[in-house]
Amino acid sequence: MALKLADYKTEVHNDWCPGCGDFGIVNALQMALAEMGIERDKATIFSGIGCSGKTSHFINTYGVHTLHGRVLTFAQGGKLANPDMTVVAVGGDGDGLGIGAGHFVAAGRRNIDMTYIIFDNGVYGLTKGQASPTLKLGEKTKSLPSPNTNYNVNPIGLAVASGFTFVARAYSYDVRHLKDLIVKAVRHKGLSFLDVLQPCPTYNDINTRDWYAGIDLAQESLDRHARIYKLEDTKFDPTVHYEDESELNEKLSQALIKSLEWGNKIPIGIFYQNEIISEYSTRLTDKIPNYLENPPAKQTISENGLPNTDISQIIDSLRV
Amino acid sequence: MGSVDFTWLIGGPQGSGVDSGANVFSKVCASMGYQIFGKREFYSNIKGDHSYFTVRVSDEKIHSNINDVNLIASFDAETIFRHYDEVSAGGGILYDSDLTKVTVDEVHTLDIYFKERLIKELQSKNKPLTIAGVLEIVQEKGVNLYPVSFREILSTLSEQTSNPKIKGMVRLFNVISVSLSLGLIKMSIDPLFKSLDSIFAKKPQIAEINKQAGIFAYDYVKSKFNNFPFILSGTTKEPDTLLVQGHYGCSIGKMVSGCRFQSYYPITPASDESVYLESNELLEVNNDRPGSTAVIQCEDEISAMGMMIGAALTGTRSSTSTSGPGFALMTEALGWAGINEVPIVITLYQRSGPSTGLPTRHGQDDLSFAVHAGHGDFPKIVYASGDIEESFYDTGRCFNYADVYQLPVIHMMDKFLSSSVVTCKEFDPKKITIDRGLLLEKVEGEYKRFAFTEDGISPRSRLGMDNGVFWNTGDESDEFGHISEDPIIRIKMMDKRMNKLDLILERIPKDETAISFGVSDYTIISWGSPKGPILDALTMLKKEGINIGFVQIKLIHPFPTDYVKFLLKDAKTIINIEANYSGQLGKIFKQNVLRNIDYSILKFTGRGMTSTEIYDSLKKIVENKANKREILTHGA
After folding, report:
1. What is the pLDDT of residues B484-496, one digit of tens each?
2. Taking the domains of chain B in order of start, what are their residue ranges?
3. Which of A68, A185, B35, B485 has the fewest beta carbons closer than 10 A?
């Protein structure tokens, strides 16, 4: 029986603030899972800590709500041990780019076949609105005692520099576009990163829904999200097409340059995609030929309660 | 001990082949039937600082080092300065005769504190502040000197083989030292050749040069010196004997126990284990296709812990190995594994703390920390191995405990164990069982990961399993694993988890929790690596008619109070022995058994305990001459 969208929803009460951008992301994720027809028991959503961390409880697949900043470590361990499952990790920008920044960079270097979605709102919501890593220098959201004293991190630029092989940005109020990007990210062979701009209606009074809609710009004909435009509607080609250093460097640098656009024109869509760089399981397969057929989670380790591993060669080499 | 009890010490700058020299020497002696106990000491340094290796050789089973050294094989001045006073009368020092004029000041790697003590000693004996000075001291004590010019050996060998390159090959110093030693003790050199062939299997030319140097040095020393009183010509070989490095017990134990995922971050002395596992990542499996261990080097210990938990949630037996500083970083996730009832094994190779402490030195510093690691109340097991052979079987137990009780297990090892090289009885995989507890093979109907059951242990699904969907969270949760702050659920969940501590004490067989080696009026309690030196010290005392009991405690948390009380009921005086400052086991013992420790024998210099110093302290205790707190100091 084909799975419907409703099959991916749990009965857990959702306690996010009314109007929160997170709703769009959880809906898009459920829609994407339904569209891809991924069985509930063949996917695991790992989540970090914060408002976004509760996401895994709202989705009716395996859900692992981990620790602050550590979601990628749990997710990578799970995926490496059981590469047959679809793994999506989610978390806030404070979780992934503040306390978890080291893991973000290291995960990029590994390029394990999974997806990481950051709920990017510029504030630490659940602790009442402190500045998070993506808030711009000098900005003062409403619960800050004084303007932010730190420069902002550029999630797209950092992902590209760290080795992520699919790097994209979405907007949480454009749910259909976000859903399409999640599908592409999950289907990408390698580590995909999705930076989702997600207004926090309670604590971020700068990058609000109205701000993304461009109400302040006083343009004559406003579309729904006037500040935002889609890269796929332009001539921008994010894909690395062939194995060549200059091709690679060009695609990496154009992604970085594009990621710096902000203000009145904010690009969303795919910034960079590279399926030529080896995904981690192929690196493992180079040394463990049957890793994918017989991964850690599938191996038999005993027969009738006794070990079945044969260590006689090692023991022989140690005999005096 | 038997008729042969010989201790050999090789020293030199780090990176000069001291380790490989000692390994070869140990291998040769073991292949001639002797029992070996070797121990490696080194600075936190890559090249240049002093490292040394002590190898004790006997024709009977030995479990430790002793204080006295019978032969020093040296090729640098520092080794002589640092170790000359360890050689007992009748022993010998093999040294490079070109070094006799080297002064204390010329050896830049001697630290000022040691130098001050050495100069004071030489001045008090009216000796020159040179190698010649210390050699005079030992000679007066009755130590034999065996001067050999290493430069001359190389140049003669170079001429004989018409290979001018050999003249400058200081890399040959270690094989020369080993061969000189073998010549002095009249051991056959054939096993040395075999060893060199296997070490340099891929470089036959290098093997050949090493062999030439070896035979030359061997013949040279035999022709020149004939008065060394220790002759080791071979003995009857014990069947099924292995020569193993300290970390092999846990590594091979992990392979056998079915550990298929190990994540780690490099740290001394734990990473040897992970590197060994990765070097042997492909596994032969009976009646099945080949298996493998995924060994993943992480960006830090936090990641190693997270990855291990992620892997364990898929039903894979997973572990990490680390040392104190790394374990400190793991504690937040340890609590996560506790509240989510995830079976994991952390092999904790302790070293001297606090902080970076003595990073390459021994210590049993982390017992209190391991028992209390993590915020909040959650169940865990802390289990300690006393020697390398034990650590193989204990690894199997740790994985079973983790699976059966669904909790983190901390397996306590230490630097003394991990950098020992010993002969031991062959590891027998048939003595390891695999019990995965309530791990499900399939799920039917509604599934609740944390279902309330009679004993608190719930059937366990795994990520990716058909119909087994569940949720985990570090928050308190309901039976499905969804967040719950309900006070009644909170009480039930805390009871469910914490009840495991009682189950463990009820269900784990008593002889896995503590081992009695006999109980007397005076009885020792201890844990971990002091076991070996204690056993040897007790044998020495027994020969003098002094009987002292010994109870080795293996399960430290939850503490097997009733069983330990039972074992110690006839003991009048309790002596606690461990390698840390505060007597951490002693405190745990006192807290649980409600009985005082009468004497403590403690060591925290970072050097392993010898049986000699334990013997000395125990003797003082029975003669009523001891301090309540005996502090051991032996070792350079």
Report:
1. 999 999 999 999 9
2. 5-224, 244-431, 511-631
3. B485
- pLDDT at residue B443 tops 80: yes
* Phi and psi angles of residue A90, each rounded to the nearest 5 degrees, phi first: -130, 155
Query: In whole angstroms, how far apart are CA B569 and each of B503, B542, B551, B565?
Result: 24, 22, 12, 6
Give the minimum alpha-carbon distance from B376 to chain A in angstroms, rounded to a whole number: 15
The predicted-structure confidence for B270-322, as pLDDT tens digits, reads as follows 999 999 999 999 999 999 999 999 999 999 999 999 999 999 999 999 999 99
Is CATH 3.40.190.150 correct for B244-431?
A: no
**Class of B511-631 per CATH?**
alpha beta
Strands of the sheet containing B344-350, edge to edge, are B294-297, B259-264, B317-322, B344-350, B408-414, B381-384, B555-557
Q: Would you call A80 and B294 a contact, using CB atoms and an 8 Å cutoff?
A: yes
* CATH for the A5-287 domain, from 3.90.1680.10, 3.40.50.970, 1.10.3720.10, 3.40.50.720: 3.40.50.970
The two domains B244-431 and B511-631 share their CATH topology (first three levels equal): yes
How far is residue B283's CA from residue B251's CA, in Å, rounded to a whole number? 13
Euclidean distance between CA atoms B377 and B493, whole angstroms: 12
Are the CB atoms for B440 and B448 separated by under 8 Å? no
Give the mean pLDDT of A212-234. Answer: 83
ipTM for this prediction: 0.98
The predicted pLDDT at position A278 comes to 97
Spatial CB neighbours of B366, under 8 Å, sequence gap ≥ 6: B324, B327, B348, B350, B353, B412
pLDDT tier, A220 (very low <50, low <70, confident <90, very high otherwise): low
Under 8 Å between Cβ of A238 and A185: no
Nearest to A259 by CA among A175, A189, A154: A154
Lowest mean pLDDT among A291-295, B47-51, B242-246: B47-51
**pLDDT band, residue A216 (cuts 50/70/90):** confident
- The answer to whether the beta carbons of residues B139 and B147 sit under 8 Å apart is no
Cβ neighbours of B402 in A, within 8 Å: none
**Residue of chain B whose Cα is closest to the Cα of A301:** B258
| CA quadruple A248, A254, A257, A258: dihedral sign | negative
Quick one: tokens of A83? Answer: 């590469």
Nearest to A77 among B263, B336, B429 (CB): B263
**Hey, is B603 helix, strand or coil?**
coil
- CB–CB of A67/B303 below 8 Å? no
Q: Residue written as tokens 């070797």?
A: B38
Does the CB of A64 have a partner CB in chain B at under 8 Å?
A: yes
Three-state SS at A284: helix
Q: What one-letter code names the amino acid at B236?
A: T
Chain B hits for A57, CB-CB cut-off 8 Å, are: 471, 473, 482-483
Q: Which residues in chain A are closer than 8 Å to B434, comparing Cβ atoms?
A: 301-302, 305-307
**CB-closest option in A81, A103, A307 to B314:** A81
Whether the predicted pLDDT of B1 surpasses 90: no
pLDDT at B438 > cutoff 50:
yes
CB contact under 8 A, A41 and B465: yes
Q: Which residues of B445-459 are buried (b: 16+ CB within 10 A; e: fewer)?
A: eebebbeeeeebbbb
Domain range summary for chain A, segments of one domain joined by +: 5-287
pLDDT at B95 over 90: yes
CA dist., res. A190 & res. A111, Å (int):
5
Nearest CA to CA, how far is A64 from chain B (Å)?
5
Contact (CB<8Å) A320/B475 = no
Contacts of B416 (CB under 8 A, 6+ apart): B39, B362, B529, B579, B608, B609
Nearest to B220 by CA among B118, B284, B148: B148
How many residue pairs bridge chain A and chain B with CB atoms within 8 Å of each other? Answer: 244
